[in-house]
Amino acid sequence: MMIQQITQRLSEVNTLVATCNQDGFSFGRALSLSLFYRDFNDTNSLVKEAENLARENPARLLECSISLLSETDGYLSSDRSELYAANFERIFEEHIKPFELRHEEAKSAATRLWRDYSAKSNRLDLLPLESAEYRLLDKECDAAKAEYDRAHALADLLYQEWQQELERCFCVYCFKPLFLDVLVERLKGIAGSIIADINRMQEGKP
User: Fold this and answer.
1) What is the pTM of this model?
2) Number of separate helices (H) and strands (E) present in the chain
3) Structure-derived torsion over alpha carbons of residues 25, 26, 31, 34, reported in degrees to the nearest 10
4) Which of 111, 143, 173, 193 could form a disulfide with 92 if both were Cys (CB 3.0 to 4.6 A apart)?
5) In 34-183, at which residue ranges do the beta strands (DSSP E only) sit?
6) What residues contact 29, with CB distance under 8 A and at least 6 apart?
């Protein structure tokens, strides 16, 4: 159930917020907080699920809502000074920079190898086909081309890794602690409303 997932993930967020005050703010912490907001900022699905559960299993929904309310209270009453002091854009850029640099280094190496191969190939075009120098340089060209192909493939692979990591964690760059505060306040309101509604149902009130 989504409400259980949110409660579990928010419990993890609360642990992260509490421990970052002693251990500093790592990229891993920033990513976890950002992913929580990204995954659950649209609360419409939670409301729809709650409406269905209220009919099917109100007791279970009440239990889950009480747990969620407890976690939201835990977050909102916590010391979030380290969270607000963290520079999420800088944390993201420091994490992603090595991926970019590895690609750029591989790309530069492949470019140098291509120039070396091209120079050999151009010299080859000027030599008589049957000459010993041609045969020797032809082998060197083949070796240079194979070396370039390997370097080019590595550069392509590192580019894909860089882009995949960008996609995976760009939410860190966009994240603001205020976003999380607003979401948790909204979740608290939803949990409180569910509890109140179920209590009224159980008391036979309209």
Assistant:
1) 0.83
2) 8, 0
3) 10
4) 173
5) none
6) 16, 20
